[in-house]
From TrEMBL:
One of the Pfam families matching this protein, by short name: PBP_GOBP
Record lineage: Eukaryota, Metazoa, Ecdysozoa, Arthropoda, Hexapoda
GO CC terms of this entry: extracellular region; extracellular space
Keywords: Disulfide bond, Secreted, Signal
Organism: Drosophila melanogaster
Protein name in UniProt: Odorant-binding protein 56e, isoform B
Length: 131
């Protein structure tokens, strides 16, 4: 189960789709759609990012990641909210696993809040092996 769902709880941020209710999945999907529209990216760009394709460094894609993470409460003002991440993802992926990824990723900083959120998502995604 991948931290992709830090995105799908991070783009339909359903960190383990099996761990979310249908209502939570629908809510995450709506948030992702709203962020696609707000940031002006294509559905394909959102799907690529959700799938771990980090080749597109379009600033709009980075701001999409920020929008989604902010809407889910995992990030605020360019800062990761470790307690919120642990509370939302711990029950799905296991607290120890989440804490291990947090130790690797939560100090990540980018040039601005969009870049930071994008890099955080990338770090969480790339360190999903424990999930």
């Amino acid at each position: 189960m991948k931290v992709f769902f830090v995105f799908a709880a991070l783009a339909a941020l359903s960190l383990a789709s099996a761990g979310l209710t249908d209502s939570q999945k629908a809510e995450a999907k709506q948030r992702a759609k709203a962020c696609v529209k707000q940031e002006g990216i294509t559905k394909e760009q959102a799907i690529a990012l959700r799938s771990g394709n980090f080749a597109d460094s379009d600033p709009k894609v980075k701001c999409f990641a920020n929008c989604f993470l902010e809407q889910t409460g995992l990030v605020a003002n360019g800062q990761i909210k470790p307690d919120v991440v642990l509370a939302k993802l711990g029950p799905i992926a296991g607290e120890a696993n989440v804490k291990e990824v947090q130790a690797k990723c939560d100090s990540t900083k980018g040039a601005d809040k969009c870049d930071t959120s994008y890099l955080l998502y990338k770090c969480y995604y790339e360190n999903h092996a424990q999930f």
